[in-house]
Every structure is written in structure tokens, then in C-alpha cells.
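Self-study notes.
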Amino acid sequence: MDKSLLQKLAKRIKELRKLNNFTQDELSFRAKIGRSTLGNIETAQNDVTFTKVNKIAKAFNMSLSEFLNF
């Protein structure tokens, strides 16, 4: 994935996480992904699969299109 797109996604996740008062632990639990994986996604260190993006969107109770509106 393009680095600038990863950075936008990372920023979106972090903003939504803080807006919802979720810790990384809580969001990773809700999304059913590892905490270290979420941390790497949130800092744009790792590429992310579509499946993980969808899991994170669901953890925020958002549709994928709403989640990716950045």
C-alpha cells in the first residue's frame, strides 16, 4: 500500500480511537486483532490487509465506506 495512504489510515484510526475513548488494547480486543498489530497499523509501520481494515471499522460500529472517508 502507498505510504501516504497508510499514514492517512493510521491517522484516521488514532483519531477515531481517541474520539471513542478506546485504548489500543480495547480497540484491538473489539477488532479481534493483536495489540502489537494495531500499534503497527496506527504508526503506519506495516501494510494492512483489507480484512483487518474491515475488522477495525466494525469495532467502531462503522460501515467500511464511512470508516474510509478521509
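Second protein, same conventions, sequence then structure:
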Amino acid sequence: MGDRVVEIKKGLEDVFVLETKISSIDGIKGILEYRGFNIHDLLHLSYDAVSYLLIHGKIPDEKEISAYSHQLKKDRGIPEEMIRVLHTCNFNIEAMDALRTEVSYMAHCDPDMNDNSYDGNIRKGTRLISKFPTIVAAFHRIRNNQEIVAPDPHLSHGANFLYMLRGTRPGELEAELIEADFILSAEHELNTSTFSTRVTASTLSDLHSAIISGLSTLKGPLHGGARMAVMEMLDEISVPEHAEEHVLNLISNKQRVMGFGHRVYKTYDPRAKISKELAKKIAEEKHEQKWYEIAQNIENTVNRELVEKRGKPIYPNVDFYAAVIYRYLEITPQLATSVFAIGRVSGWIAHILEQYADNRLIRPRAKFVR
């Protein structure tokens, strides 16, 4: 490079590397849109419809959503060979690791394995969306010495997941909450895991390989793994009265308060606002305020110490109140990141397809230093 001055932006912060029609973020105003639709306006739709919107670029009409949902439900089951793979997993691991292993196995036996056409990838993507909840629930049941629960084709994407996970049909509000969580998790522009799927797709590798890249990246505690970390923090605090002291200790030791702050948002994450409202609703319905009150005390302390006193724009992100909701839905910390992936896979597939459609190998440079 000679003596040419090169600006290095660590973490590619505020570097625009591509154009997308899939989603947009206004980090100053706190606005998130999928295909031009505000996230708040999409919560009245099913996850299936939002998945269709992300992948196909339009809100489906009645005929389109009927056919798409039918295919998703048809593909939910996992064969005996996949169940055997789950039995070989280390049961001390996160469900995320088992999910990643199963996607690798699925790549070997998918009927469209060698078809990288648009239609072939749509079929492969639909199967992945369908089977993610089944894999996660089955792994959880096996790990806890419980019988695997077969999918129920009469239930929505979210309600069916809770049914397979717990063995009983969820309540109406529980089903609403998990469906909303999947929608809020589905897409978020060029986040780290989505970028990793596009890097892999840019080599013209297959869709399963790109999804595995996303899973591996989402697992990190600075990305999707933060939900598990928040749940562990809630457990460690255990009672609302201990929350303030816990946060003050973290701040004094210059440690991160998990579930707070975001690279893009300089205001309250719009997804966190929605999750906070839903967490309050489920706490009231279950007559159990503990987890919500711990979260409130954490947020109040962070707001007082970091926002008001130090002027830092550190607000709850999507992981914080999602973790609270998971507590009320009996989702364990070891499942948290894989549940995030159940929602996010639709966004990954949309980005992979967009990358294939107008591909250029993603290959940045590094400045050599002595």
C-alpha cells in the first residue's frame, strides 16, 4: 500500500459494505423496518407471514400464506437418523451446538443438496425454518430424559415450539409472546451473524454452510449468546432487592451489564420496548413479578448510573427483556441462543438469497503493521 493513508474502523463500525432491500434501522430515532414495514405494525401477523415477507419481499395474500404455512407444517418432523444424531451430542452443551451439528447433518441428506438454484434454495430454506424448532425442542427433551413430542400441525410456529418443548399446549398469551419473540428476532440488517452468512454465500458455498456460519457467529456472548448471559444474571441476582448492588458492582469493576447497549442504537431498542411490554403482561397473568421486577431494578440502576450521571446512551437491547420472557415461558438459559436462531433463520435465508442474486466475493483488506 506504500505510504497511502488508510483509515481503519475496528469492527467495521459505521462502514457500509452493501445495499439491501430486506430491512433498515434508524439508530437515532429507534426505528426498525422489515421490507419497509415498521416492526410494530408486523406484530399482528404470524411468524409465517413475516418469514414470507422477509424471503419473498411482500406480505403474502391469503392463498400465498396458506400454501407457505402448509409447507412449513408439513416439513416440521425430523427423521429417526436426526434423532440419533441428537443422542450423540454432549448434553452439557448449549442447544445451539446441537442445532449447528444437526444443520451439518441435514446438508448431507437434503434432497436438494446439490441444487443451488433459487427454487432449490427456497425449498432448503423452508425445511430449515420448519425443523429448527423441532430440533431444539427434541434436544431439550432428550437431555432431560423425556419422550420427544411430535409437532402439532394445528398449532402456529411459536405455539408448536412451546408444545414440543414442554409437552402441553401453551396458553394464549404464552403463544402470543413466543410468536412475537420470533418476529422480533427474525431480522436486523447487517448484524454480525447475518454478515457472516453473506460472507459464506459470497464464495458461492451452499445455503446450509452459510446458515452454519450464522449459527456459529450468533452463539457468541457479544451477539445472540447475550440472552443466555442475561438469564444467568437474573438467576445470580435471584431477588429484586439484590439487583441494584449487582449492577453497581459490575459498573465499578468496569464489567459489561449484559443486555444493555448496542452498536447501532443510540436510543431505546424498539424491539426491547415491545418485549418489555410483553414481559409485564406475562408477569401479571402468571401473578409472578419476580423476574420482571429484577429486570426493572437492573434497568433503573443502569439508567441512573450510566445514562443520567455519565450521559452514555446505554439502553436495553433486544436480548434483555427477551431473557425475562424466556424465564416466564420456562425456557432454560441453555436454550436461549438456539431460540433466538429459530426466529433469525428467516432473515439469514433472505440475506443469503439476496447475496446470491447480486454476488461479489466479500474480501476486505488488512493493513500490515510492523
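Instructor comment on the second fold: The longest helix spans residues 118-143.
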